[in-house]
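Worked Example 4.2. Consider the chain below.
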Amino acid sequence: MEENMKKRLALLKRQNKQREYEKRVVFEKERLISEHIDFTKYYRFAEQGEADRINSVLNGLPVRYTRPDFSKLLIEHKSQNIDDLLPYENEDIWICCLCGSMELINLFSFGKMSSFFHDFEYWYSISDYLFLLFNNFNDFIYIDDNGEIVKSKIVTQK
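Applying the procedure from the previous section yields the following structure tokens:
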């Protein structure tokens, strides 16, 4: 009987932890929406299947010191100016915050690169490290806390 009580208590703890996490995710979503007046007009959050796919891309990246290891990635373009990315303004992207609370890191926003350009200061104030994943789930742009911008691909070098 005592073993059943221990299992039940463990289950209740897991359920409570999950509910607390879900509350924090909702809070983080509301914060993002409320801080940006037109968020719902220009962006949406990833659904579970999309989030799983984005997480698999992020988890598959070679990482060194909390940033992509570009010695193992194909670098297409480096810049210090966001305007250099204007050729991609019509692309659909996933905006991934790589620093902040776990709830923020696990929220992915989808929108046009042109909207991101317009709201760059907003996004950069939310997270110092941004990972913009193109809708093809292969190309990406990484922006670090020094404003360095790197366009790359998921394909690793041999």
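The chain has a mean pLDDT of 89. The two ends are 58 Å apart (CA to CA). Compare this with Example 4.1 before moving on.
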